[in-house]
Amino acid sequence: MSTVNPIAREISAKIVYYGPGLSGKTTTLQRVHASVRPETRGQLVSLATEGDRTLFFDFLPLKIEQVRGLTLRLQLYTVPGQVFYDATRKLVLNGADGVVFVADSQELARDSNAESMGNLESNLAELGIALREFPLVIQWNKRDLPGILPAAELRRELNRLGAPEFETVASRGEGVLAALQEITRLVVRDLSARHPGRRAPAGMVLSGGGSELATQISAAADAAPQGRRPEDRGELVGVSFARLFPGAGAAIAETEHAIAERTYGAAVRAAAHAIADLLSALPVDETRPAARAGLLGLDGREFLRLGRLAQRPDAAVTEQDALFALYLLVAASVKAERI
Questions:
Q1: Cα–Cα distance measured from residue 172 to residue 111, given in angstroms and rounded to the nearest whole number
Q2: Residue 210: how many CB atoms within 10 A of its CB?
Q3: What is the pLDDT of residues 257-303, one digit of tens each?
Q4: How many other C-beta atoms are found inside a 10 Å radius of the C-beta of residue 33?
Q5: Most buried in the list 17, 58, 153, 247, measured by CB within 10 Å?
């Protein structure tokens, strides 16, 4: 939910990148991260499988210095595109102020694009929000690939609301900042419209089509090589997966807290013990933990990896190891709830 702090002279807003799996959401966030100066960005957090597909979310905070001493703080999130993780999409979407829908321009992605757009509309409806009244920008991504659909055809199938749209090549960063500029302009305008008696600080309500904001976001870009991939990681901010499991999320909360405290060994052990408890509670005759993990639907290699990590001394356990342990614990909890 966007907020205005007139004393600090800043606006804070949450923007979510939505779309089908492998459409380029994470790549878009990586390109934004690589294209702005280090002092304007926070750490990029990404929870992904070993195959580099986002399972839960990516998170990137940005601070855009405005003219007249005003500041705009953006919290950029992605959601997982896979159908299985709809509960996570709902969690991340909650409190969003705007959405950038990243569509895959390839012919083979036509059905998954439509399914994801419908999913966005239904999930917003569950939050009491009509998509037609919500800040929305669309990226037609992967425009550099062969066999892509014409933009007019994509527009006819996916953009019936006439949202602003941009042709992008996220792998090269083409068009991603322009889309970010536009969704930010729409979010700020929507904030002013929804709270007419609580206006943004003087000078923050933008005119002239948002050109001032576009200039400031563009000014944050540096000459970073376009091939650079951000490697820094940070703490989980603003989201707790324990909320997905009312009454049973204590182990997840414990793991998250250990990560926040940078006690990564404790985080891995907490996740490993919680998964062991989940497996022991399965109503099956199989006694071998690895076999039980397979019956639950966990990847056997990932389960064995977690076991090895739990045996390491604390000094040898990294932040990435702890984030992996959290991912596997949440995945196991989601699968256990389906039994």
A1: 25
A2: 17
A3: 888 888 999 999 999 999 998 888 888 777 888 888 888 888 888 89
A4: 23
A5: 17
CB 148 within 8 A of CB 110: no
Q: Is 280 helix (H, G, I), strand (E, B) or coil?
A: helix
Q: Name the residue type at position 37.
A: R
Structural domain that includes position 247: 241-337
Do 211 and 249 lie in a common domain? no
Residues 27-41 pLDDT 10s: 999 999 988 888 888
- Residue 47 near residue 57, CB atoms below 8 Å: yes
Rounded to whole angstroms, the Cα distance separating 261 from 17 reads 28
* Best CA proximity match to 23, nearest among 190, 181, 188, 142: 142
The CA distance from 114 to 234, in Å, is 33
Residues 199 and 255 reside in one and the same domain: no
Q: Distance (Å, rounded) from C-alpha 332 to C-alpha 107?
A: 34
**Rounded to whole angstroms, how far apart are CA atoms 61 and 76?**
6
